Amino acid sequence: MNNKHFCTNETNTTSPQNAARIQTVPADPSGFAGSTGTPDGTAEPSPSMASSVTRHAQNPLSDNFQFLVSGIDSLDLGLNILWNHKWPDFRAYLDQKKQEAMEKNGVLDRTPHEVEFVHLPTGKAPNYRYHLHFPEYHLYLSISDKAHKSPNGYLSINSEALWKGSISHLLESVGIDLHHYGGTIERIQISRVDLCADYRIPGGITLDFLERHRVSRANETTFHLRHNILETYYVGSPSAPVRLRIYDKGKEIQAKGTKFWFTDIWKVDDITDVWRVEFQMRRPLLRQFQINTLEEFWQKIGGVWSYLTSEWISFRHADNDRTARRTVLPWWEHVQQAGNIFNTSGSVQRYSQDDMLAPVEWYVSHVAGCLASVAARMNIEDCREAVKVLGDNLEGHWKEKDFRSEVKKRSIRLGRVASKDERENHEEASSVELTSRGIYENM
Protein backbone atom coordinates (compact mmCIF):
# COMPACT_ATOMS: atom_id res chain seq x y z
CA MET A 1 0.00 0.00 0.00
CA ASN A 2 1.46 3.36 -0.98
CA ASN A 3 0.52 6.98 -0.72
CA LYS A 4 -0.13 8.43 -4.13
CA HIS A 5 0.95 12.04 -4.62
CA PHE A 6 1.91 13.59 -7.91
CA CYS A 7 4.20 16.56 -8.35
CA THR A 8 4.84 18.66 -11.42
CA ASN A 9 5.59 22.27 -12.22
CA GLU A 10 4.04 22.08 -15.65
CA THR A 11 2.09 25.17 -16.72
CA ASN A 12 -1.21 24.50 -18.48
CA THR A 13 -2.43 26.62 -21.37
CA THR A 14 -4.21 24.14 -23.65
CA SER A 15 -6.61 21.63 -22.14
CA PRO A 16 -6.51 19.04 -25.00
CA GLN A 17 -2.79 18.67 -24.42
CA ASN A 18 -3.42 17.94 -20.77
CA ALA A 19 -6.02 15.35 -21.68
CA ALA A 20 -3.49 13.60 -23.89
CA ARG A 21 -0.92 13.53 -21.13
CA ILE A 22 -3.15 11.90 -18.51
CA GLN A 23 -5.06 8.67 -18.92
CA THR A 24 -8.84 8.44 -18.48
CA VAL A 25 -10.28 7.80 -15.01
CA PRO A 26 -12.66 4.88 -14.39
CA ALA A 27 -16.37 5.46 -14.87
CA ASP A 28 -18.10 6.77 -11.77
CA PRO A 29 -20.89 4.80 -10.10
CA SER A 30 -24.45 5.79 -11.00
CA GLY A 31 -27.17 6.76 -8.56
CA PHE A 32 -24.75 8.35 -6.09
CA ALA A 33 -26.07 10.84 -3.56
CA GLY A 34 -24.94 14.43 -3.52
CA SER A 35 -24.31 16.45 -0.36
CA THR A 36 -28.03 16.50 0.40
CA GLY A 37 -28.07 12.69 0.44
CA THR A 38 -30.46 12.37 -2.50
CA PRO A 39 -29.36 9.90 -5.20
CA ASP A 40 -29.47 11.02 -8.82
CA GLY A 41 -29.76 14.65 -7.84
CA THR A 42 -29.77 17.13 -10.71
CA ALA A 43 -26.86 19.52 -11.03
CA GLU A 44 -27.98 23.12 -11.02
CA PRO A 45 -26.09 26.18 -12.24
CA SER A 46 -25.32 28.87 -9.73
CA PRO A 47 -26.99 32.25 -10.21
CA SER A 48 -24.84 34.94 -11.73
CA MET A 49 -23.96 37.76 -9.42
CA ALA A 50 -24.85 41.30 -10.47
CA SER A 51 -21.41 42.61 -9.64
CA SER A 52 -18.17 41.30 -8.26
CA VAL A 53 -17.53 41.72 -4.55
CA THR A 54 -13.85 40.93 -4.96
CA ARG A 55 -10.98 42.69 -6.64
CA HIS A 56 -11.10 42.84 -10.42
CA ALA A 57 -9.07 40.18 -12.17
CA GLN A 58 -8.94 38.72 -15.62
CA ASN A 59 -10.00 35.12 -16.07
CA PRO A 60 -6.76 33.37 -15.03
CA LEU A 61 -8.38 29.94 -15.03
CA SER A 62 -8.98 30.01 -18.78
CA ASP A 63 -5.50 30.85 -19.95
CA ASN A 64 -2.87 30.48 -17.25
CA PHE A 65 -2.48 28.15 -14.28
CA GLN A 66 0.20 25.81 -12.98
CA PHE A 67 -0.51 22.36 -11.53
CA LEU A 68 1.66 21.63 -8.50
CA VAL A 69 0.52 18.45 -6.74
CA SER A 70 -2.45 16.22 -5.93
CA GLY A 71 -2.81 13.82 -3.04
CA ILE A 72 -4.34 12.88 0.31
CA ASP A 73 -4.23 15.64 2.91
CA SER A 74 -6.34 14.10 5.68
CA LEU A 75 -7.11 10.51 6.63
CA ASP A 76 -9.16 9.31 9.62
CA LEU A 77 -9.51 5.60 10.30
CA GLY A 78 -11.70 3.59 12.63
CA LEU A 79 -9.76 0.83 14.41
CA ASN A 80 -11.20 -2.36 15.85
CA ILE A 81 -8.72 -3.06 18.64
CA LEU A 82 -8.66 -6.23 20.71
CA TRP A 83 -7.01 -5.63 24.07
CA ASN A 84 -5.48 -8.47 26.07
CA HIS A 85 -5.30 -8.98 29.84
CA LYS A 86 -3.25 -5.75 30.19
CA TRP A 87 -6.26 -3.58 29.35
CA PRO A 88 -7.60 -2.97 32.92
CA ASP A 89 -4.20 -1.75 34.09
CA PHE A 90 -3.63 0.29 30.94
CA ARG A 91 -7.09 1.88 31.20
CA ALA A 92 -6.37 2.86 34.82
CA TYR A 93 -3.08 4.36 33.63
CA LEU A 94 -4.90 6.31 30.90
CA ASP A 95 -7.38 7.67 33.45
CA GLN A 96 -4.51 8.78 35.66
CA LYS A 97 -2.74 10.56 32.80
CA LYS A 98 -5.98 12.14 31.60
CA GLN A 99 -6.49 13.65 35.04
CA GLU A 100 -2.91 14.94 35.12
CA ALA A 101 -3.36 16.38 31.62
CA MET A 102 -6.36 18.40 32.80
CA GLU A 103 -4.14 20.10 35.33
CA LYS A 104 -1.08 20.57 33.11
CA ASN A 105 -2.62 21.03 29.65
CA GLY A 106 -1.04 17.82 28.42
CA VAL A 107 1.37 15.27 29.90
CA LEU A 108 4.46 14.04 28.09
CA ASP A 109 4.95 10.27 27.99
CA ARG A 110 6.93 7.68 26.01
CA THR A 111 6.46 4.11 24.89
CA PRO A 112 8.83 1.35 26.07
CA HIS A 113 10.79 1.95 22.87
CA GLU A 114 11.22 5.66 23.66
CA VAL A 115 8.64 7.04 21.19
CA GLU A 116 7.40 10.24 22.81
CA PHE A 117 3.73 11.26 22.82
CA VAL A 118 1.36 13.49 24.78
CA HIS A 119 -1.72 12.62 26.83
CA LEU A 120 -4.33 15.33 26.17
CA PRO A 121 -7.26 16.10 28.50
CA THR A 122 -10.07 15.97 25.93
CA GLY A 123 -11.18 12.90 24.01
CA LYS A 124 -13.44 12.68 20.96
CA ALA A 125 -17.17 12.70 21.64
CA PRO A 126 -19.20 10.64 21.95
CA ASN A 127 -17.26 7.38 21.93
CA TYR A 128 -13.62 8.07 22.73
CA ARG A 129 -12.52 9.02 26.23
CA TYR A 130 -8.73 9.04 25.78
CA HIS A 131 -6.59 11.14 23.45
CA LEU A 132 -2.95 10.30 22.73
CA HIS A 133 -1.01 12.60 20.42
CA PHE A 134 1.97 11.02 18.68
CA PRO A 135 4.12 13.06 16.26
CA GLU A 136 2.51 11.48 13.19
CA TYR A 137 -1.04 11.00 14.40
CA HIS A 138 -3.78 11.45 16.99
CA LEU A 139 -5.05 8.24 18.57
CA TYR A 140 -8.41 8.19 20.36
CA LEU A 141 -9.44 5.21 22.50
CA SER A 142 -12.77 4.20 24.03
CA ILE A 143 -13.20 2.47 27.39
CA SER A 144 -14.06 -0.87 25.75
CA ASP A 145 -11.60 -3.74 25.48
CA LYS A 146 -13.01 -4.70 22.06
CA ALA A 147 -15.10 -3.20 19.27
CA HIS A 148 -18.86 -3.70 19.26
CA LYS A 149 -21.14 -1.82 16.85
CA SER A 150 -18.48 0.81 16.20
CA PRO A 151 -14.66 0.88 16.34
CA ASN A 152 -13.12 1.31 19.79
CA GLY A 153 -10.18 3.22 18.34
CA TYR A 154 -9.97 6.24 16.06
CA LEU A 155 -6.82 7.28 14.21
CA SER A 156 -6.31 10.70 12.63
CA ILE A 157 -3.07 10.92 10.63
CA ASN A 158 -1.27 14.27 10.39
CA SER A 159 -1.05 16.03 7.05
CA GLU A 160 2.76 16.13 7.06
CA ALA A 161 2.99 12.41 7.75
CA LEU A 162 0.66 11.69 4.82
CA TRP A 163 2.62 13.83 2.36
CA LYS A 164 6.08 12.73 3.46
CA GLY A 165 5.57 9.14 4.52
CA SER A 166 3.89 5.86 3.68
CA ILE A 167 0.45 4.94 5.02
CA SER A 168 1.49 1.30 5.38
CA HIS A 169 4.53 2.32 7.42
CA LEU A 170 2.38 4.59 9.60
CA LEU A 171 -0.08 1.78 10.29
CA GLU A 172 2.79 -0.49 11.18
CA SER A 173 4.00 2.16 13.63
CA VAL A 174 0.53 2.42 15.17
CA GLY A 175 0.34 -1.36 15.50
CA ILE A 176 3.68 -1.43 17.29
CA ASP A 177 2.71 1.45 19.60
CA LEU A 178 -0.54 -0.33 20.53
CA HIS A 179 1.18 -3.69 20.98
CA HIS A 180 3.34 -2.21 23.74
CA TYR A 181 0.16 -1.81 25.80
CA GLY A 182 -1.58 -5.06 24.85
CA GLY A 183 -3.64 -4.01 21.83
CA THR A 184 -3.97 -5.71 18.43
CA ILE A 185 -5.62 -4.11 15.38
CA GLU A 186 -8.20 -6.53 13.97
CA ARG A 187 -9.92 -4.32 11.41
CA ILE A 188 -9.49 -0.90 9.81
CA GLN A 189 -12.21 1.17 8.15
CA ILE A 190 -12.05 4.63 6.60
CA SER A 191 -14.04 7.31 8.42
CA ARG A 192 -12.92 10.45 6.58
CA VAL A 193 -10.53 11.34 3.79
CA ASP A 194 -9.62 14.65 2.12
CA LEU A 195 -8.37 14.56 -1.48
CA CYS A 196 -6.85 17.68 -2.99
CA ALA A 197 -5.16 19.24 -6.00
CA ASP A 198 -2.98 22.35 -5.71
CA TYR A 199 -2.43 25.02 -8.35
CA ARG A 200 -0.60 28.28 -8.73
CA ILE A 201 -3.14 30.73 -10.12
CA PRO A 202 -1.64 34.19 -10.77
CA GLY A 203 -4.05 36.86 -9.53
CA GLY A 204 -6.05 34.34 -7.52
CA ILE A 205 -9.73 33.40 -7.82
CA THR A 206 -12.70 35.70 -7.31
CA LEU A 207 -16.02 34.87 -5.73
CA ASP A 208 -17.84 36.25 -8.75
CA PHE A 209 -15.89 33.93 -11.06
CA LEU A 210 -16.78 30.80 -9.07
CA GLU A 211 -20.44 31.73 -8.71
CA ARG A 212 -20.86 32.51 -12.40
CA HIS A 213 -19.37 29.21 -13.56
CA ARG A 214 -20.48 26.74 -10.88
CA VAL A 215 -22.72 23.81 -11.84
CA SER A 216 -23.42 21.78 -8.70
CA ARG A 217 -25.72 19.25 -7.05
CA ALA A 218 -25.20 20.99 -3.73
CA ASN A 219 -27.25 24.11 -3.05
CA GLU A 220 -25.42 25.47 -0.01
CA THR A 221 -22.38 27.69 -0.53
CA THR A 222 -20.47 29.81 1.95
CA PHE A 223 -17.34 31.88 1.62
CA HIS A 224 -14.81 33.94 3.55
CA LEU A 225 -13.58 37.30 2.34
CA ARG A 226 -10.83 39.49 3.75
CA HIS A 227 -10.82 43.09 2.52
CA ASN A 228 -13.25 41.95 -0.21
CA ILE A 229 -10.75 39.37 -1.45
CA LEU A 230 -11.80 35.73 -1.52
CA GLU A 231 -9.83 33.42 0.73
CA THR A 232 -12.12 30.36 1.08
CA TYR A 233 -15.12 29.09 -0.86
CA TYR A 234 -17.27 26.18 0.36
CA VAL A 235 -19.82 24.08 -1.50
CA GLY A 236 -21.91 21.81 0.70
CA SER A 237 -22.77 22.03 4.39
CA PRO A 238 -20.20 21.32 7.13
CA SER A 239 -21.96 18.10 8.13
CA ALA A 240 -22.64 16.84 4.58
CA PRO A 241 -21.19 13.52 3.35
CA VAL A 242 -19.06 15.52 0.91
CA ARG A 243 -17.92 19.14 0.94
CA LEU A 244 -15.77 21.10 -1.50
CA ARG A 245 -13.36 23.74 -0.28
CA ILE A 246 -11.45 26.00 -2.68
CA TYR A 247 -9.03 28.23 -0.80
CA ASP A 248 -5.82 30.19 -0.87
CA LYS A 249 -3.47 27.62 0.65
CA GLY A 250 -0.43 29.86 0.45
CA LYS A 251 -2.17 32.60 2.42
CA GLU A 252 -3.32 30.07 5.04
CA ILE A 253 0.24 28.83 5.51
CA GLN A 254 1.55 32.38 5.82
CA ALA A 255 -1.10 33.33 8.37
CA LYS A 256 -0.66 30.28 10.58
CA GLY A 257 3.12 30.14 10.30
CA THR A 258 3.09 26.36 9.80
CA LYS A 259 3.41 23.86 6.96
CA PHE A 260 6.14 25.77 5.15
CA TRP A 261 7.42 22.30 4.24
CA PHE A 262 4.88 22.41 1.40
CA THR A 263 7.41 24.49 -0.56
CA ASP A 264 9.48 21.30 -0.94
CA ILE A 265 6.47 19.32 -2.12
CA TRP A 266 5.32 22.05 -4.50
CA LYS A 267 8.93 22.69 -5.59
CA VAL A 268 8.45 26.45 -5.31
CA ASP A 269 10.07 29.22 -3.29
CA ASP A 270 7.11 31.62 -3.35
CA ILE A 271 3.77 30.41 -1.99
CA THR A 272 1.79 33.40 -3.25
CA ASP A 273 -1.34 32.53 -5.24
CA VAL A 274 -1.21 28.80 -4.49
CA TRP A 275 -4.83 27.61 -4.38
CA ARG A 276 -6.17 24.26 -3.27
CA VAL A 277 -9.21 22.31 -4.51
CA GLU A 278 -10.13 19.95 -1.67
CA PHE A 279 -12.95 17.44 -1.28
CA GLN A 280 -13.75 16.45 2.30
CA MET A 281 -15.44 13.03 2.29
CA ARG A 282 -17.09 11.39 5.27
CA ARG A 283 -18.26 7.88 6.07
CA PRO A 284 -21.78 8.10 4.51
CA LEU A 285 -20.32 8.98 1.10
CA LEU A 286 -17.70 6.25 1.31
CA ARG A 287 -20.38 3.72 2.16
CA GLN A 288 -22.33 4.69 -0.96
CA PHE A 289 -19.24 3.87 -2.98
CA GLN A 290 -18.99 0.61 -1.00
CA ILE A 291 -15.63 1.68 0.37
CA ASN A 292 -14.93 0.15 3.77
CA THR A 293 -11.33 -1.04 3.75
CA LEU A 294 -8.15 0.68 2.61
CA GLU A 295 -7.83 -1.85 -0.19
CA GLU A 296 -11.27 -0.88 -1.53
CA PHE A 297 -10.34 2.78 -1.19
CA TRP A 298 -7.24 2.40 -3.37
CA GLN A 299 -9.26 0.47 -5.94
CA LYS A 300 -12.00 3.09 -6.23
CA ILE A 301 -10.32 6.39 -5.41
CA GLY A 302 -10.03 7.41 -9.07
CA GLY A 303 -13.72 6.79 -9.68
CA VAL A 304 -14.62 8.82 -6.59
CA TRP A 305 -12.56 11.79 -7.82
CA SER A 306 -14.11 11.47 -11.29
CA TYR A 307 -17.64 11.53 -9.86
CA LEU A 308 -16.97 14.49 -7.58
CA THR A 309 -15.30 16.66 -10.23
CA SER A 310 -17.60 15.74 -13.13
CA GLU A 311 -21.05 14.92 -11.73
CA TRP A 312 -21.25 16.38 -8.24
CA ILE A 313 -19.74 19.73 -9.23
CA SER A 314 -18.00 21.35 -12.19
CA PHE A 315 -17.15 24.84 -13.38
CA ARG A 316 -18.32 25.60 -16.90
CA HIS A 317 -18.85 28.39 -19.41
CA ALA A 318 -22.47 29.55 -19.68
CA ASP A 319 -22.56 28.64 -23.37
CA ASN A 320 -25.58 26.31 -23.38
CA ASP A 321 -29.00 26.29 -21.73
CA ARG A 322 -28.45 22.68 -20.69
CA THR A 323 -25.82 22.62 -17.96
CA ALA A 324 -24.57 19.15 -18.91
CA ARG A 325 -23.63 20.43 -22.36
CA ARG A 326 -21.78 23.51 -21.18
CA THR A 327 -18.04 23.64 -21.88
CA VAL A 328 -15.89 22.76 -18.87
CA LEU A 329 -13.36 25.45 -17.99
CA PRO A 330 -9.77 24.47 -18.90
CA TRP A 331 -8.69 24.78 -15.27
CA TRP A 332 -11.47 22.52 -14.01
CA GLU A 333 -10.85 20.08 -16.84
CA HIS A 334 -7.34 19.72 -15.49
CA VAL A 335 -8.73 19.27 -11.97
CA GLN A 336 -10.81 16.40 -13.30
CA GLN A 337 -7.74 14.81 -14.89
CA ALA A 338 -5.52 15.40 -11.83
CA GLY A 339 -7.23 12.54 -10.03
CA ASN A 340 -5.83 10.01 -12.48
CA ILE A 341 -2.65 9.76 -10.45
CA PHE A 342 -4.67 7.93 -7.78
CA ASN A 343 -5.13 5.05 -10.22
CA THR A 344 -1.42 4.50 -10.69
CA SER A 345 0.83 2.45 -8.47
CA GLY A 346 3.71 4.88 -8.33
CA SER A 347 5.59 5.20 -5.08
CA VAL A 348 5.57 8.28 -2.91
CA GLN A 349 8.31 10.81 -3.26
CA ARG A 350 9.97 11.13 0.13
CA TYR A 351 11.46 14.25 1.66
CA SER A 352 14.18 14.65 4.23
CA GLN A 353 13.13 15.87 7.65
CA ASP A 354 13.46 19.62 7.68
CA ASP A 355 11.97 22.21 10.01
CA MET A 356 8.27 21.67 9.41
CA LEU A 357 7.38 25.02 10.94
CA ALA A 358 7.98 28.52 9.71
CA PRO A 359 11.58 29.59 9.07
CA VAL A 360 13.43 31.05 12.06
CA GLU A 361 13.07 34.49 10.47
CA TRP A 362 9.28 34.23 10.78
CA TYR A 363 9.50 33.79 14.56
CA VAL A 364 12.23 36.40 14.91
CA SER A 365 9.95 38.99 13.29
CA HIS A 366 7.25 38.27 15.88
CA VAL A 367 9.68 38.35 18.80
CA ALA A 368 11.12 41.60 17.44
CA GLY A 369 7.67 43.18 17.54
CA CYS A 370 7.25 42.07 21.15
CA LEU A 371 10.69 43.45 21.98
CA ALA A 372 9.72 46.92 20.81
CA SER A 373 6.50 46.76 22.83
CA VAL A 374 8.36 45.72 25.98
CA ALA A 375 10.94 48.47 25.46
CA ALA A 376 8.21 51.09 25.05
CA ARG A 377 6.51 50.03 28.28
CA MET A 378 9.81 50.14 30.18
CA ASN A 379 11.08 53.36 28.57
CA ILE A 380 14.13 51.62 27.11
CA GLU A 381 15.48 53.08 23.88
CA ASP A 382 18.67 51.04 23.54
CA CYS A 383 18.13 47.81 21.60
CA ARG A 384 20.85 45.81 23.38
CA GLU A 385 19.50 46.79 26.77
CA ALA A 386 15.96 45.86 25.70
CA VAL A 387 17.15 42.44 24.48
CA LYS A 388 18.90 41.80 27.80
CA VAL A 389 15.86 42.84 29.85
CA LEU A 390 13.53 40.71 27.74
CA GLY A 391 15.93 37.76 27.96
CA ASP A 392 16.14 38.03 31.73
CA ASN A 393 12.35 38.14 32.00
CA LEU A 394 11.96 35.14 29.71
CA GLU A 395 14.48 33.14 31.73
CA GLY A 396 12.63 34.07 34.90
CA HIS A 397 9.34 33.02 33.32
CA TRP A 398 10.67 29.52 32.59
CA LYS A 399 12.77 29.15 35.74
CA GLU A 400 10.05 27.36 37.69
CA LYS A 401 8.76 25.39 34.69
CA ASP A 402 9.96 22.41 32.69
CA PHE A 403 11.11 24.12 29.47
CA ARG A 404 12.43 20.93 27.87
CA SER A 405 9.20 19.03 28.48
CA GLU A 406 7.12 21.91 27.11
CA VAL A 407 9.23 22.09 23.94
CA LYS A 408 8.72 18.38 23.35
CA LYS A 409 4.96 18.60 23.92
CA ARG A 410 4.62 21.51 21.51
CA SER A 411 6.74 19.74 18.91
CA ILE A 412 4.41 16.75 19.04
CA ARG A 413 1.27 18.92 18.96
CA LEU A 414 2.56 20.77 15.93
CA GLY A 415 3.06 17.47 14.11
CA ARG A 416 6.83 17.26 14.21
CA VAL A 417 7.36 13.93 12.49
CA ALA A 418 10.30 11.81 13.53
CA SER A 419 12.56 10.74 10.70
CA LYS A 420 12.09 7.28 9.26
CA ASP A 421 15.43 6.19 10.71
CA GLU A 422 14.48 7.41 14.19
CA ARG A 423 11.18 5.56 14.13
CA GLU A 424 12.75 2.39 12.75
CA ASN A 425 15.39 2.41 15.50
CA HIS A 426 12.60 2.50 18.09
CA GLU A 427 10.51 -0.13 16.32
CA GLU A 428 13.14 -2.62 15.18
CA ALA A 429 12.89 -4.76 18.29
CA SER A 430 9.12 -5.25 17.90
CA SER A 431 8.60 -5.30 14.14
CA VAL A 432 9.73 -8.89 13.50
CA GLU A 433 7.62 -10.24 16.34
CA LEU A 434 4.47 -8.42 15.23
CA THR A 435 4.88 -9.32 11.58
CA SER A 436 5.28 -12.98 12.48
CA ARG A 437 1.96 -12.80 14.35
CA GLY A 438 0.34 -11.48 11.16
CA ILE A 439 -1.37 -8.41 12.62
CA TYR A 440 -0.65 -6.34 9.51
CA GLU A 441 -2.27 -8.75 7.08
CA ASN A 442 -5.02 -7.19 4.98
CA MET A 443 -4.17 -3.65 6.10
Structural write-up:
- The protein is built from 15 helices and 16 strands.
- It is of the alpha+beta class and 443 residues long.
- The chain has 2 domains: 1-357 and 414-443, no CATH class; 360-413, no CATH class.
Distance between the termini: 8 Å
Largest sheet, in brief, is: 13 strands, antiparallel
Strand content: 15-25%
Unreliable spans are: 1-42, 46-58, 344-358, 429-443
Helix content: 25-40%
The general outline is flat
Average pLDDT number: 78
Total separate domains:
2
Number of helical stretches of at least 4 residues: 15
Backbone CA Rg = 24 Å
Task: Say how many strands there are.
Answer: 16
Structural class: alpha+beta
Blueprint (SSEs and pairs):
Layout: E1 6-7, E2 11-12, H1 15-21, E3 44-45, H2 60-63, E4 65-83, H3 87-104, E5 107-110, E6 116-120, E7 130-133, E8 137-141, E9 153-157, H4 159-164, H5 167-179, E10 183-200, H6 207-213, E11 214-216, E12 221-226, E13 229-235, E14 242-248, H7 249-256, H8 262-266, E15 274-282, H9 283-288, H10 294-312, E16 313-315, H11 330-338, H12 360-377, H13 383-399, H14 403-413, H15 420-437
Antiparallel strand pairs: 1-4, 2-4, 3-11, 4-9, 4-10, 5-6, 6-7, 7-8, 8-9, 10-15, 11-16, 12-13, 13-14, 14-15
Helix pairs in contact: 5-15, 10-11, 12-13
